[in-house]
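Researcher: Good morning. I'm working through a list of sequences from a screen, and I'd like to move beyond sequence-only analysis. For each chain I'm collecting a predicted structure so we can compare shapes side by side. This is the next one on the list. No need for commentary yet; just the structure.
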Amino acid sequence: MRPSSEAELADAVAGSMRPLLVRGGGTRTLGHAVGEVLETGGISGVELYEPGALTLVVRAGTPLAEVEGVLAGERQRLAFEPPDLRGILGREGVSTIGGVVAANASGPRRVQAGAARDAALGVRFVDGTGTMVRNGGRVMKNVTGYDLVKLMAGSRGVLGVMTEVSLKVQAMPEAEATLVVEGLDDPAGLACLRAALGSPFDVSGAARHSGRSLIRVEGMAGSVAYRVRRLIALVGGEVSLVEGESSAALWRAVRDVVPLQGRPGEVWRVVTLPTAAAEVVARIGGEALWDWGGGLIWLLAEPGRGAEVVAAVAGRGHATLVRGQGGPVFPPEAPEVAALAAGIRAKFDPRGILNRGMMG
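Model: Good morning. C-alpha cells for this chain:
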C-alpha cells in the first residue's frame, strides 16, 4: 500500500485486518517486523519553510536529500547530521525525513546540537486505530502534558505512522576545521576526545578510528582559528589540521560508518559511557569506529559474539545488532521498562498491527 494523503493513510490503517510493516525508504529499517508493507513515500512535500525563523514543516515521506537541498539553498542544514546507513546495511532506496525522525537518526554533531528528537518541534501521525493525532507546533516552546513529539522520535513506527514533522534547522557555519591527533593508543586517544569535549571550545565532533582522533570545530572563521589554537595546546600529541571540504569529507565518513562498509562480520551499534569505551572494545574484540567522544561505538566483530557484546555493556549502556544474523536486534528491556512500553503501545496501537515484532 502506498497512500498519497493523510486521509488515505488513516483509512488504510483503520481498515486493515492484518499487521502492517511501515516503511519510508527502507534504508534504515532494523528488527524483525512482519506484515503488509505500508509505504509513506506518497505523502511527500515541504509544507512550510521559514529560513528567518529557522523552521521547516515537511511531510514525512519527503526524501531526506530533497529536504537537505531546500535547506542548502538558504545556507542552512539539519543540525543533527543524520547518517546514511545504506552502505553499512547493504541497502538501496531513498531515505525519508519521517524515517530519520522515527529512527532518531543522529550523527557526530549530536555531542553539540543534540539528536533528531531535540530538533523536532511538532508531529502529525496516524495511530493504530486510524486516528489522526497532532502534537507540538512550529516553534520551540515549553511542553505541557505528554510530549508525543519526543515519544515518536525513535519509536520506529510501533506507535503510529508519521505524516508530518516540524523541525528547527541551523545556519551553515562560515568555517570548519578538524584536528587530527595521532601517536596515541586507544585509551589515550579517547581521553583526548573527552578532554576536548569537556573544554569551553564548543567542539562539534569527536571521533576515533585507525589510530587517529578527530576533533571538529565550526563557526565564524576567527572563532574557529582561536579554538583550534587552544585545542592544539590542550590535547598535545602529534596534531595536524584539516579544513573546509576536506574536513567535511572526514566527518561524512564517520557519520556514514564508511570504514566498516563492505566488510565481513557483524556490525554492532554500542552506546556506552565514554569512560568505558576502550574497555568495552578490548573485552569484545574487533574493529571500532568511536563517535561522540567514545559514547557511540560502531563495532565490526566476528559473528556469534552477541553474548559477549551484551555482557560487555551490561549496566553501562546498550547494544543494537545493526548487521548480522540470529538473536535479538535490540537490547533486552528491564521488566519495568518493558511493562511501561507495552502499556504505551496498547494505548496507541491496541490491535498491535503496526510494525509488530520490530522492537523484539
